[in-house]
């Protein structure tokens, strides 16, 4: 068996990122390495490791895809909480979903199985 279970992204301030991922997306804090990093975990046990770059600029180098129960509902919840989106749920080249950015500019794409199946295919 082979299974991806951790991913590290560089962030300017791990505390800001930790707070954003836990409060905005509802990920849980798995652990912290004081003054250096935090690990946040999704409902399936996948860990996103937020490693601080000591205030240096971050060049986002990946796109993160988060599966949700219902992308329309999640979008409405986050938008009502004043979360800024790049775009609401809509058909894109990658399928169907919404897109937002974290505090360091990493793009996050939210999607759900049903919408992807019904609206995401050409």
**Helix fraction by DSSP (H/I, runs of at least 4):** 10-25%
- Overall mean pLDDT stands at 94
- How many domains? The number is 2
What would CATH call the architecture of the largest domain?
Roll
Cα distance, first to last residue? 33 Å
Unreliable stretches = none
Largest sheet: 4 strands, mixed
- Overall shape: it is globular
* Strand segment tally: 8
CATH class bucket of the largest domain: Alpha Beta
Task: Walk me through the topology.
Layout: E1 6-11, H1 14-24, E2 28-33, E3 37-41, E4 47-52, E5 63-67, H2 71-80, E6 85-92, E7 95-101, E8 107-111, H3 113-119
What would you say this structure looks like, in words?
There is one protein chain. The chain is an alpha/beta fold and 122 residues long. It has two domains: 1-55, Roll (2,3-Dihydroxybiphenyl 1,2-Dioxygenase, domain 1); 60-122, 2,3-Dihydroxybiphenyl 1,2-Dioxygenase, domain 1 (Roll). The protein is built from three helices and eight strands; from the N terminus they run βαββββαβββα. It has helices spanning 14-24, 71-80, 113-119; strands at residues 6-11, 28-33, 37-41, 47-52, 63-67, 85-92, 95-101, 107-111. The protein is globular, with a radius of gyration of 15 Å. The model has no long low-confidence stretch (mean pLDDT 94).
């Amino acid at each position: 068996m082979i299974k991806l279970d951790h991913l590290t992204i560089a962030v300017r301030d791990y505390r800001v990122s930790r707070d954003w991922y836990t409060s905005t997306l509802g990920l849980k804090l798995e652990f912290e390495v004081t003054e250096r990093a935090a690990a946040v975990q999704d409902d399936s046990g996948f860990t996103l490791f937020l490693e601080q770059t000591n205030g240096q600029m971050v060049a986002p180098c990946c796109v993160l895809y988060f599966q949700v129960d219902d992308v329309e509902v999640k979008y409405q919840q986050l938008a009502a909480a004043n979360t800024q989106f790049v775009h609401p749920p809509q058909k894109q080249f990658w399928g169907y979903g919404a897109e937002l950015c974290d505090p360091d500019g990493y793009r996050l794409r939210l999607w759900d199985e049903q919408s992807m199946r019904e609206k995401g295919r050409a």
